[in-house]
Each structure stands twice: as C-alpha cells, then as structure tokens.
C-alpha cells in the first residue's frame, strides 16, 4: 500500500515550484542513469555521494541537516527490500536535491523501532522524508516503481522549497559538472517563469498563451497556464474565511472551488480532488458541470501522469457514468 506525503503546516507556494530548465537537465540525467543501470546494475548503488547508510550515531546529525537539504529515509530489512534500487537510482538522478539515507532494520533495531513508532507505520520497507526535522510519511510495504516514486519526491521537494529548504548534498556540484548540458529553456517558457517569480500573473499568462499558440501540443505550457490560473484565483484570499464559508455551505460550488484551489496551493492535492469529486457525486446540472470542469483544470496543474491524478480521474469517470 502506498501513501502520498503529508506536507508540513507551512503554506506551499506554487510560485517557482516548476523549473523547466532543471527538469530538462533531470531528464537527460535520467537517461544516463538508465544506460548505466543496464550496463552495470550495481553502478547506481555504489559510491554515490547522495546515498548514505544511517546508524543511531549518525541519525541525529542527518535530521539536523534536513534544515538545509531534504532527507529521504529508506528503512529496509533483508527479505523485504524489494525495489530499493529505484530509490537509489532516483537519488543519483536528482543529483543532490535530496539525501537518501538507508537504514538496515536488522542492524539498527532500536532506530528502526523508533522510526516505525513515530510514523505510526505498520510494515517495512518504510520510506519517509524529513524536512526541517519534521517527518513526512511517504509509503510502506512493497516499493512503487521509479515512475510512481518520482511525483512523490517532486512533492517533497515542493514542500521543502516552501519551507526554505533549498540546499543540495555536499559533492553535488562535482557530480553536476559531469552532466551533459541541459537543453535551453524556450524563450517564452523562461519569460513565463520569470513573470511568475515576480508575481506578475498577467505577464505569465500572456507568455504561456503565446507558447500554446505556437505549439498547441506544448504540455509544459498547458500546465504552466493552469498553475498561473490557480495562483491568480487564490491571490488575496483569506484562508480562514474561505474555509468557514465552505463549511457553512457544503453544496455551494464556488465556495468549494475556492477551498480546493487553496488546498492545492497548500500541497493538499488529494484533499482538493476529493472536495470537488464530492460536489460531482451529489449535485446535478450546472453545479456538477462546474465542479467537473474545475477538477479537470486542476488535473492539468498537477500533471496528467501523477498517480493522484490518475486515481482521481478514474473516480471522476465512475461518478459521471
């Protein structure tokens, strides 16, 4: 069974959360890691500066380091460690954006027991993140695939950035120097991202719209435009008042849409989806259509391949038919 990360209480801001240049570089490195793994399956798990073995003696220091670099912990045991290679390959692929700490439950039983209890977990393998000393449960039991793990890691990195944790693992610069140069970011993409960083949502909207006019199949522009739409809608909204209004009027579609947007910006993706799915399930006519349309728009914000989107899209289909 897998669970998605529960972000810390700090509000997650989508501004700057998607760096297309970094994503392009990461895709290049992903291909490199895949080639190395095919040639030598052990190559991605040995000698990496981004993977460390954790003991009781080193645990406290690593947790302290999570104020600078996100820490992902992999608690494993012989006979239960099925698929950890995917995590280690991803640590190499992300090249220092997070540190992967491996804990052998049999060698470190005290540490393993403390971690399981603190996270209220029921099984190992257990994977969790730590950001600024705060634990974020990710998943337990059998490992998901690398493609399923990746969006979870992206969410952890967004939470970390929202909390000011933007450092990199020491030694990452040296590894990055060996990477092939990333393809340049398209000018209109760069213009839109710069506008979002500056808080100029009108300019960002215009740039993304131009990019889509040039290439209607530009998925990054489609997602960027959807993100700007969310940021524009929640700008200046009082969170407490919005939640109170939604609680007082559970079938007020517009009130629920506002809170769904706030949930999404706050990193509570599944809550946002569930709120709108509830409206679709219990209303008809224009209200139902408005909730459905907005939910599909939020799918674009998160990304079509995100497992949470896939799950919510299936639920939407069941609700409609």
TrEMBL record:
Task: Read off the SUPFAM superfamilies from this record.
Answer: Thioredoxin-like, TPR-like
List the InterPro entries: Thioredoxin-like_sf, TPR-like_helical_dom_sf
Spell out the protein name for this chain: Tetratricopeptide repeat protein
Q: Which organism is it from?
A: Kineococcus endophyticus
Source organism phylogeny: Bacteria, Bacillati, Actinomycetota, Actinomycetes, Kineosporiales
């Amino acid at each position: 069974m897998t669970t998605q990360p529960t972000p810390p209480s700090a509000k997650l801001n989508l501004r700057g959360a998607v760096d297309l240049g970094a994503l392009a570089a990461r895709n290049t490195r992903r291909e490199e890691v895949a080639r190395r793994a095919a040639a030598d399956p052990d190559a991605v798990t040995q000698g990496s500066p981004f993977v460390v073995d954790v003991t009781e003696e080193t645990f406290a220091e690593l947790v302290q380091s999570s104020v600078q670099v996100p820490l992902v912990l992999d608690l494993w045991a012989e006979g239960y460690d099925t698929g950890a290679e995917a995590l280690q390959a991803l640590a190499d692929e992300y090249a220092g954006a997070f540190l992967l700490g491996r804990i052998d439950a049999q060698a470190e039983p005290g540490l393993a027991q403390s971690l399981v209890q603190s996270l209220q977990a029921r099984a190992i393998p257990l994977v969790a993140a730590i950001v600024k000393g705060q634990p974020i449960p990710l998943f337990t039991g059998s490992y998901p695939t690398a493609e399923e793990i990746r969006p979870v890691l992206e969410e952890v990195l967004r939470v970390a950035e929202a909390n000011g944790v933007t450092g990199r693992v020491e030694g990452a610069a040296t590894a990055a120097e060996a990477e092939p140069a990333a393809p340049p970011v398209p000018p209109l993409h760069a213009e839109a991202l710069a506008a979002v960083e500056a808080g100029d949502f009108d300019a960002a909207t215009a740039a993304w719209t131009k990019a889509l006019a040039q290439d209607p199949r530009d998925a990054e522009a489609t997602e960027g435009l959807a993100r700007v739409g969310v940021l524009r809608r929640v700008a200046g909204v009082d969170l407490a008042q919005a939640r109170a209004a939604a609680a007082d009027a559970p079938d007020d579609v517009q009130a629920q849409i506002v809170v769904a947007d706030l949930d999404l910006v706050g990193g509570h993706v599944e809550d946002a989806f569930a709120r709108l799915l509830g409206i679709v399930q219990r209303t008809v006519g224009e209200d139902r259509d408005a909730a459905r349309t907005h939910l599909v728009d939020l799918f674009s914000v998160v990304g079509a391949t995100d497992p949470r989107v896939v799950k919510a899209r299936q639920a939407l289909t069941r609700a409609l038919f």
